[in-house]
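Colleagues,

Please find the record for the two-part complex below.
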Amino acid sequence: MAQVYIPGLLRELTGGRETVEAEGSTVRQVVESLGRVYPGLAERLVEQGRLRPNISVAVDGEISSIGLLEEVAAGSEVHFITAIKGGRCARRS
Amino acid sequence: MSTQYTVVGTRPVRHDGADKVTGRAIYGGDFTAAGLLHGFILRSPHAHAAIKRIDVSKATAYPGVKAVVTADDMPPAPGDKIVDLGEGETPLSYVRGNVLASGKVLYKGHAVAAVAAVNPHVAEEAARLIEIDYEVLPCTLTAPDAMRDGAPILHADLRMKELGQKTDRVSNISDHFRHVMGDAEKGFAEAEVVVEGEFNTSTVHQGYIEPHNATALWNNDGRIHVWCSTQGSFVVRDATACVLDQPVSQVKVTPLEIGGGFGGKIPVYLEPVAALLSKKTGRPVRILMSRQDVFEGTGPTPGSHLKVKIGARRDGKIVAAQAWLAYEAGAYPGAMVGPGAMCVFAAYDIANVVIDGYDVVVNKPSTAAYRAPGATNAAFATETLMDELAAKLGMDPIELRLANAAKEGTRRADGPKFRKIGCVEVLQAMKNHPHYSAPLGGPNRGRGVAIGFWFNVGLPSSCTISVNADGTVNLVEGSTDIGGTRTSVAMQAAEVLGLRAEEVLPTVVDTDSVGFTGVTGGSRTTFATGWAAHDAAQDVVRQMKERAAKLWEAAPESVTCERGVYQSNGHSATFRELAARIGETSGPVVGRAAVNPRGVGGSFAGAIADVEVDPETGKTTVVRFTSVQDAGRAIHPSYVEGQMQGGSVQGIGWALNEEYFMNGSGAMVNSSLLDYRMPTALDLPMIDTQIVEVPNPAHPFGVRGVGEANIVPPPAALANAIHAAAGVRMRRLPMNPPAVMEAIWRKSTSPDS
């Protein structure tokens, strides 16, 4: 299970929880897993099969350049954070 | 220098040195082509206006004019298409709208139309004949003003987003986000000492000496060839293709030498326009910006407005911090408030933090990156308050920082934990530096310190290395060379191959000739393209072992390579000896690598500044300045020191002099280098440097990247030094003589004085 940190403005969807656990071996699977447990959360992170332009994901402390395709290991920390420059944070799926 | 390396850590002469010092290097202004035409861009005289009518007939008929273009000549932009250009993603409509305005102009200097003619003077004269009817609209120039109810709205379709949630509110606020860690309210309740303040920083420009330029030829076969000054040739290729609705394969970009960029030469401004003019004329078209164009029509760094609060226990432990950041994006969303929020408290281990960030559009040029974008603004607030906190606690300011310094495992407020970092090592180097304990040497002098962080980036890089029969190698890369990266990349290949740096011959090539390579930005080139060179060199070593095995009739796995000497079962040959015989084996040896590396290592930097403040004029003179930075591993220490000095000088200019001085109607009134005062060598002392090396464990040589963190501490260090010298706390940049004088007068007339 990955440890997912929920951004402050999304914690209303997780009952105020700052961290939650989610299954998945990629960020995409983690988001889908979150969406099943916390309705509405996946839609706030993903749009048309891609991370929303103003959101980046960091896995184990490093911002990913491949977004939803990034691999997630058991025990990984996953953070959804504000992207650089109006949605800027390199290529991602 | 580390003894484990023979090339890394040395100081060879740069490969492009002869071309640069003899003036033979080809910059955009030098470039020419057969049949070249000259372009001129007509820009808006208004900060905010609706375009009611454009009549180009007089310009088109002007003798010597070959073509005129407006936004109507561009393909329509699908409203919601997102494109990835350089450091990330942005709506295509914004990119196109900034290249040539359509419907509305959003800042003075916004490009509206362009002319191609037989010479630049005719082009300019003709452009002045273009008739445009504007309906002038009220403008908004600062984030606080643009955020208020009733402010003039720049984009009728812009609705505020809160982390992916688009609200119904039509607003100049593009984005609001919040980072929360722990319980800030509870933390402040536990605090025994609290410091807080409201800060403002002005819009400033990167100030690269070479203006933007572009030449384009839209050939008869449909291919577009662009020659330009850019931090990323592939970005120009992709952006030009996007704006003109062409496949990327139809665009080829040849990067020319670049006379500075600092983040400002990532966006495209001229290239699509030159291409459109070329399409209409069938001839190559070159456009050069004037300095005024550069100031008014390209991307400066955001002005910002910050409220920061820090609470600590009496023993110096910080227990809570809060920041409210509003950054001015300029005409289109994308202020660097995200990284500002990531960096505002990054230097410290604080349990309870809340950070709110606002990305706000205003009627100024659309902002671009500038060395550690967003971080300098944020550090000005945080590091000034750290000085105040140290004074209130009676602690040495470096000791206070050491007591709270971020380390490996410290969690930042935006979420991720730090890996191995050098914050403590930088602070210790500052504390131990002779400058920190040296006498000030005169009256009205003061010393200040500050630190700063930039996280750096990775992004893709590609590289090939081909072996020459004389034992040298040709290294082909796609990273445009701004700060000596040809050499810092070549040195990493040389280290792997066991060659001298001079035996690796680097060439920066066009987009048809190398694999995709990201921008030269984010302090990434020595890190990522250097990594690609390392891997390509390893590929060469592998192939050279196979060739040696063939020559010696040995098993490839029996061949070893140690510092360029290949051996197996009593056979031995140097790289040069083997290279001379590769023709006897299986033909050319070409190594290649394409990387998109993880393992980026953030960099901390510190500044110690001594100033003298003239109590009668408020003028601040920098009398001594020391920059300290964690390089991870300094591949070429001279170039690391050069980055530290350059970043420091830019930070000093930002702190003391530079600003976009805007009049009430939104016009910049100091758009020349005479009036926009950047520091020169005559204004400053020698910038001393001390490189700290806490190797990045993820990189083959420990590189972190050194292009940016050094600009972050200077404004706060100087503010703290001014306080020590004159007893006034400065809350606004620039801290120019009128501002300091006013603060001194205010202090002298206050009831407490």
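Residues 86-93 of chain A have pLDDT under 50 and may be disordered.

Comments are welcome before we finalize the supplementary table.
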